[in-house]
Specification:
- The protein is mainly alpha-helical.
- The chain has 2 domains: 81 residues, RNA polymerase sigma factor, region 2, helix turn helix motif (Rna Polymerase Sigma Factor, Chain: A); 70 residues, Orthogonal Bundle (Arc Repressor Mutant, subunit A), CATH 1.10.10.10.
- It is 79% helix and 0% strand.
- It has 8 helices and no strands.
- Helix 7 crosses helix 8.
- The longest helix is centred in the N-terminal third of the chain and has 31 residues.
- It is globular, with a radius of gyration of 20 Å.
């Protein structure tokens, strides 16, 4: 190994060590923004990647705590934008000024997120691609390496599993 490679490897290890020290703080911040542990993990993972890439480019924050908090907050916003991106028009109960209606809507959203967490990874992946990312069937098929007909079957199976999980939480399909 030449000197340049050795130096790059040493810098990489230092960044990884620093990131490992910050990891509990990153996850703690993510939990402040997230509705559940799955969302917190997603936020923390994406924020950690951004922090790692920034440090590889030589960013050395003067105030690391504030810098990390801002990155985590930005990734939390991104996640919630993606989750709400394809929801379309808001139901009346989400636009209501009645706090009781808003609380009911928030509880329903929490149940939906929880129900999605109960699905298999395959079901989560297919629903995320098709509905949150608005991915065409052809794109889903190509990404997953499966026929288009299989995409349709998996979407239907995932929707049925989601409805079952929602019913078990007291959320009706209407």
């Amino acid at each position: 190994m030449d000197f340049r490679s050795w130096l790059i490897n040493e810098e990489q290890q230092e960044i990884e060590q620093q990131l490992a020290q910050w990891q509990p703080m990153i996850l703690r911040y993510a939990k402040k923004f997230a509705g559940d542990s799955h969302e917190a993990d997603d936020i923390a993972q994406n924020a950690s990647i951004s922090i790692f890439k920034a440090m590889q480019k030589g960013v050395i924050p003067q105030y690391p705590t504030s810098w990390i908090y801002q990155i985590v907050q930005n990734h939390a916003r991104d996640l919630f934008r993606r989750l709400n991106k394809r929801s379309g028009a808001l139901p009346d109960d989400l636009t209501s000024s009645d706090p009781g209606d808003q609380l009911d809507a928030a509880e329903r959203q929490g149940r939906v997120r929880s129900a999605l967490g109960d699905l298999t990874g395959q079901h989560q992946d297919i629903l995320h691609g098709r509905y949150y990312e608005d991915e065409p069937e052809e794109t889903s098929a190509s990404r997953l390496g499966i026929p288009k007909g299989t995409v349709k079957s998996r979407v239907n199976a995932a929707k049925k599993a989601l409805m079952k999980a929602l019913r078990s939480r007291g959320v009706d399909s209407a």
